[in-house]
DNA sequence: AATGAATGAGTATTCATTCAT
DNA sequence: GATGAATGAATACTCATTCAT
């Protein structure tokens, strides 16, 4: 929460926000992530932001508007690395091993999520209750990200670097394993002692072995 | 939701519930899982349950009481198989391979979660907003389940059936991979075409290879 | 409140009360006197009395019924000594001085009020809000008591024992002075150190001198 | 009640009240004095004041807040003449007889109470149910007023104008006699025919004779 | 742009009362 | 007679939103 400023400056860099607007968004992120959208009142946000109640509604027509205007840039930035050339770089030049790609992606998303934790919490907590959010999420993440990811998986499957199972399953294992670490690390046990480097290394090894084609062969031929 | 009756009959079998009380709980589960605790009004629950609003408060002092009295048995039943002899069976007789244990546990929990989906949704959605819930969850799941699971992991590590990494990480991989399937299957894409048997088989293979000590050896000795 | 039992046994001696009924009345007196009629809920009374909520309404059609059935005997007993022969005794034989009468009356009413303090509190607190109560009070106290009292005052005025001002004023001075002591003693400063005998003596002297015809004369003829 | 406006303007002159706020206070005084605090609903006050129910809670956080904010200035103004120099005037210059003081004080408080009757009713009716009120009352009235009054009584006792009994008793006689008149006059029998001047004169005479030191002597010497 | 008073529908909860057992 | 589940109207209070300033 102390990093709210930077989050906002980063996530909302394109939009011109007045001082009060920034404070409203900060306060909203803070409260939404802590008590949920329904559990947070606009008056509470106003008080925390140090503005009059009416001011919120001058900038955001409704409370829901405020929520969406907070989540939208988060969604956009989430998929950023997948829609721009970064991914091509991975494919074309930099990393010609699946391991290389994995390490690059984890490093990249790890930093992003770490810096947008409260926003991320809001996103995953509110998605179930707001169909528009779910739709946007599906369209952006599920479609755009998935498509890129799929071709990438097929590419490495053809190079026989990963096992030959449905790409959807491969993607699922990747995401649940990586996000699983992230949830465990930051949402469930944020206060435990964590050796991030080691843990990430173990996680990468687990993924690589789990998806290794050799492993599969061994299992098949007695 | 159509199975609410059976859920209730099953989860609340010990308690003597009046007819109206059952209806209240059904309605509450339905609404809470759909719109969240904060987003659900007691008047809505009353209407859906076909009772007067006052009736709710005759049985549950507060709205939060209602929530807790719904989740408590869910938590208890969640850990049931881990605290009773079932686990010993797994260790002692039935399954002397990690694969055997894995298959048994997935089958068991899969059925349970499938039958308590709405309740499960409520649990994971509300935990972040209710410290008491988190505490109960930690105490029941994290402590009791984790302890059993850990000794089990060590046991199979000693039998050299799984890789020699911190048991906590092994447990994490198991849970995130299995739950990851469950979330994807029932919460994110419940409408997709799923071949459960195949998907579970793939998932088990992924886990086994990811945790296999052979894989590790191969990796270590070129 | 500890004396509730005795109050009830005494005030409600004529009526046949079941055990539960007694407990209801005790609880009602306790709560009404402490929090007022409006501020007391029937469920609270039921709980305090250790009976089911419905039981109250089996004996008293409404909550107000309960209030009235509590105050009615109090009102009746309040005027008892004024409507029976007691007063004639005072006039005829026992006390042929106003002082004698005063001492007798104070002693008599002092004991009565002291033993019915909670009931008395209820009476004076609720009268302003219940026209029926006010009516009953007027009819019983104001009419019956006043009439007796007036003839008594006139009697002593004729005997030149008290000053010759409107009897209504004489009665007012008597009542406000005596009740004034009682309020100060039991309602305002019940925890102070009180020497009742001395205080009552001073009060009687004050009344006697204030109403003395000599005093008046002295004051008139220098 | 018809004078509510003037009461408010007078009692709340220091505070800046919006139009609606004034109406809320008027309505609250009206209802509280008529049906008691517990017996009055906020919706009733809102309706009577011609404002939305929410408006009440914008200005007063709770219903009790409204009550206290009504009574506080009443308490303050009640003791006003006792804490400022007025009293010294009485002692120093104007009145060097107890009778003079008595007449001045009665005249002064008579006007005040007459103009604040509903507020006064609320005060005495609600004090028994609200410990904070009792505390405030004790602190303001019982302490400040009493202290001034006591030194005054001692002063006149030394001048041998009033009888030599405990000052507390003298004060009690004064207050109960004067308030007794006020209660009888305005609360119990407001509809009777009252000759205020005459009645007050009789009351003053009663007090003076009752407290006269001569009377005492007569009584002492056979 | 910003305020904050005002709103009225809505909130969780309490109430006196009823009624089948 | 006694119970306690059930009621629905009422309660104190909150909410998102509007609007005149």
UniProtKB/TrEMBL annotation, chains A, B, C, D:
Keywords: DNA-binding, Repressor
PROSITE patterns per the UniProt record, alphabetical: HTH_TETR_2
DNA-binding region in chain numbering: 41-60
Segments forming domain HTH tetR-type: 18-78
InterPro entries attached to this UniProt entry: Homeodomain-like_sf, HTH-type_Tx_Regulator, HTH_TetR, Tet_transcr_reg_TetR-rel_C_sf
Domain of life from the UniProt record: Bacteria
Key word DNA-binding present: yes
Record bears the keyword tRNA processing: no
Pfam family, one: TetR_N
Gene3D superfamilies according to UniProt: Homeodomain-like (1.10.10.60), Tetracycline Repressor, domain 2 (1.10.357.10)
Annotated transmembrane regions: none
Protein name: AcrR family transcriptional regulator
